[in-house]
Design goal:
By secondary structure, the chain is α+β, with helices and mostly antiparallel strands. 18% of the residues lie in helices and 25% in strands. It has five helices and 18 strands. A hairpin with a 2-residue loop joins β5 (126-128) and β6.
């Protein structure tokens, strides 16, 4: 064993038989190994962040849906009254109108990539300098994020009740301050299609030619009512990671991103069918297939997994 090439490797550097050169080489080798391991760890972390692999900080899923149709109906504010509303652009369910029900929404098909989502999503029609602009920028006209949304990670979220109706914003606002969505930053404008600076009013110009309006919906339910007289009081936002006692049921938070093609020149004036930009609002009527929604909740948000965009669901 004296002449074995492995003998020196087994001897400590305090050994009389180990040369200084050998020990120095071993020390430098260990330093290089540690640096290499640290570098691999950094690289792996970067890959995880950019590859869409599940991260504990963003459990949930994203569904992409396209513009479907426009009509002067609002089945939440004016149910059974066709033509009673200002003009809305409808996304998701293909048949949303004043007479819709969750069952009719599911039966009528969807523009969403995930077939289990036949929910109705709608916004007031948008105009640029008086000219109609449809929410059809990019191949994915709208993205809907379903996340934990300010609820503590140890809280088990409940499913969104079938037929739940939610509105964010204020169609009757006479100023930005009167629209609680804009005033609290839950409704924002920005240049898209992806990242961009959040703004409380439409941007002056977008180099991308795409303007995005984003809406964060409340995700604390009173546990009883699918709607309320003002279409808002049955819902609330969480505070300090918890839902208020008046609205104790924590459900997934919906955050919507609606994309408009506005061109690359100065945008000018953005108005809505409801009035000035500060009358921005959005409606959501849940018509997910209940089994699909429950699967996503159990296997994504409550499992602490980021399921990515349009995940495959075995029940679809």
């Amino acid at each position: 064993m004296k002449n074995s090439p492995y003998a020196v490797r087994r001897m400590g550097c305090n050994s009389r038989r180990a040369s200084n050169a050998t020990c120095n080489a071993r020390k430098h080798g260990m330093v290089r190994t540690r640096k290499a391991i640290a570098g691999l760890a950094v690289l792996l972390s970067a890959l995880l962040l950019t590859s869409g692999i599940a991260l504990a900080g963003s459990p949930g899923w994203i569904v992409s849906c396209n513009y479907s149709h426009s009509v002067s109906d609002d089945p939440i504010v004016f149910p059974g009254q066709p033509g009673a509303s200002h003009l809305h652009d409808f996304i998701g369910a293909r048949t949303t109108n004043a007479s819709s029900t969750p069952e009719s929404l599911r039966a009528g098909g969807t523009t969403c990539v995930m077939p289990g989502d036949s929910s109705g999503y709608w916004v007031p029609a948008l105009f640029k300098n008086g000219v109609r602009v449809l929410p059809t920028a990019t191949s994915k006209n709208a993205l809907f994020y379903y996340r934990r949304g300010g609820i503590r990670s140890e809280t088990v979220l409940q499913t969104i009740p079938d037929g739940l109706k939610i509105i964010v914003g204020n169609a009757q606002a006479s100023s930005a301050a009167q629209n609680e969505g804009i005033a609290t930053g839950r409704i924002i404008f920005k240049c898209g299609p992806g990242s961009g600076t959040d703004l409380p009013a439409p941007p002056a110009q977008c180099a991308s030619g795409v303007m995005v309006m984003s809406y964060k919906f409340p995700n604390c339910w009173d546990g009883v009512n699918l709607d309320s007289p003002n279409h808002k009081s049955h819902m609330a936002y969480p505070a300090s990671g918890r839902c208020p006692a008046t609205h104790p049921v924590a459900i997934p938070r919906l955050e919507a991103f609606v994309r408009y093609p506005v061109g690359t020149s100065p945008i000018g004036t953005i108005t809505l069918a409801s009035g000035a930009y500060f009358t921005a609002h959005m409606d959501f009527w849940n018509a997910w297939k209940p089994a699909v929604l429950n699967w996503l909740l159990d296997n994504c948000i409550n499992a602490g997994r980021d399921c990515g965009k349009n995940p495959a669901v075995p029940l679809d």
